[in-house]
Design goal:
Layout (H helix, E strand, L loop, with lengths): L1 H15 L31 H11 L3 E5 L13 E6 L5 E6 L1
Parallel strand pairs: 1-2
Antiparallel strand pairs: 2-3
Length: about 100
Amino acid sequence: MRNAFLSAPLLLTACSTAPASIPVHGVTPGHKCEMAGTDQFIGKKGTSANGAAIKRVSHAAVLRWSPPGVMLTMDYREDRVTVWLDPAKTITKIRCG
């Protein structure tokens, strides 16, 4: 019992130090979504090729599709672009976050 009591501070110290390489949620180094130039995709089909082009133009690291009737999380991610689709899979709206 005495050994467990003496080793407790050592165990707590090991738990309190976190490595510096843990990424912060919503931040991918070198990627911050920008809306400039994304309007050219409104009215086009939601294809993987258009999705890749939207990611490239917006500088986003993450692409999120939003088909009709799907609920999305409200968390904000500066490295994500969200693309809304209508029932015909046509792009209706593009937003960062």
